[in-house]
Amino acid sequence: MIILKLIGFVILFFLFYSVIPTVLIRSFEIGITKRLKEENTIALTFDDGPEPPYTIEILNILKKYQVKATFFVVGEKVIRNPEIIKRMHLEGHTIGIHHFNHVSSWFLSPFGLQKQLEQTKKAISECINENVIYYRPPWGHFNLFTLLISRKYQVVTWSDILGDWKTSVSKNLLLDKLRLTKKDGSIIVLHDSGETFGADHDAPKYMIKNLEKYIQECQQKGIQFVALHDYEIYKNGRRNLPSHNKAK
What we know:
By secondary structure, this protein is of the alpha/beta class. It has helices at residues 2-28, 54-64, 75-80, 82-90, 110-128, 146-149, 167-172, 174-180, 203-220, 228-235; strands at 32-33, 41-47, 70-73, 94-97, 134-135, 154-156, 160-161, 184-191, 224-225. The strands form two sheets. Strands 2, 3, 4, 7, 8 and 9 form a six-stranded parallel beta sheet that branches.
């Protein structure tokens, strides 16, 4: 009987510490950004990298079509691949935090979460010599203390998550899913790593092929792609959105 009560207590604690805060924050958009307020505009975001060769291939495509994007990076991978982070920065992309290890906030104490943020911020800042202001928790998982601990960051989730971490989706369904996303302020999340728990190793390879097709189609329709920091500067009235993203 005591064991059953203990199990019940653990389940209730987990629900109130992790699952319920996630549901409330994401459902009511409490303290987060999940869509831009701009017509004919899309924010492409990439999680779980940097991971060669996939992140490099994505950067090559973005450069080819003069598209800016946002990368939420894993701190331990930043340390292993500093040159990729430096390239992201030099080519005008936004870089944000995606924890030092790809671990869910559901299983982190407040101290553990703070450490994940601080270590990743330090790793990024040492590469680009700039402050880091964007944060996306892995899997979009929040806990009871996430918004308090991450209060100095802008927390960004997504309007569209398409399942591209699975090869079957990335290869056969992704392009159609991308075409169905709304073009007025969508924040699309894709993944430049096949090493994350639950992901297929070669899924990013097919994602990248369909990404290029999608960018081509959008540019032919005059749709603008923005990095998050460019959008924030524009929104605050300091200048217009960049004049790149033109069809070749």
